[in-house]
Amino acid sequence: MIQLRNVEKCYTAGGQTTWVLRRINLEIREGEFVTIMGPSGAGKSTLLSILGLLDAAWAGEYYLLDQPVHRLKPKERNELNKRTIGFVFQSYHLLDSMTVYENLDVPLSYRNIPRAQRVSMVCDTLDRFHIVGKKDLFPNQLSGGQQQLVAVARAVIANPKLILADEPTGNLHSQQGKEIMELFKKLNDEGTTIVQVTHSEANAAYGHRTIQLKDGWIVSEEKAARVG
Ligand SMILES: Nc1ncnc2c1ncn2[C@@H]1O[C@H](COP(=O)(O)OP(=O)(O)OP(=O)(O)O)[C@@H](O)[C@H]1O
Ligand SMILES: [Mg+2]
Predict the structure, then answer these.
(1) How many structural domains compose the chain?
(2) For 99-115, how does the pLDDT look when each residue is reduced to its tens digit (9 = 90+)?
(3) Most buried one in 1, 31, 91, 181, CB count within 10 A?
């Protein structure tokens, strides 16, 4: 599903080049659940945003569902993103001018789904995430943990083929965090490919394998001792 060949990224400021990702070669098969771990600043979020087609400023080759991402035009990349990916941002990125309900409806608006069905999908999701009472609030009226729940709900609502989640439970109570991981496991069992970034060994145990990043390099790939 995902193939990266020699993907590299750097920032240049004041004549100085800082490498953030180095010669990343990575293959992720459809139906896999992969964890990315590594110290702060290792490049995890950077890698995830490249996988999520949110960043175009990098070198190398990236094939997603056999499409050469490195050759796609911005519009095509955007279309592919909307059709196939649910992304949970480390800092949520909810739309501030929209209510919780409206935020959840956005991914559905990209698909060809009749209005009545959209309403029932949003209601089911509000219910599943225990946030029915928050549906008319705006993101800045929610706690950090509640915003994170909405961000996860938004990423999964349209049943994307690929879920990319950056520290999706970092701000949640441990029980809520566990519920999110159980939900990911269920979606993965049903065929959704998942790539998560986490600092938590407990969350990593839900994945099939863990990729360790350090200073922009993949330093190891190992099979996880799996939950369940
Ligand atoms: N716009 C930018 N300009 C310069 N350097 C940047 C920029 N954005 C990110 N970086 C650098 O890229 C490196 C990787 O950042 P990234 O956010 O991917 O780390 P991370 O592994 O996700 O860390 P964390 O665990 O803290 O979230 C960091 O050293 C960061 O300073
Ligand atoms: Mg990060």
Answers:
(1) 1
(2) 999 999 999 999 989 99
(3) 181
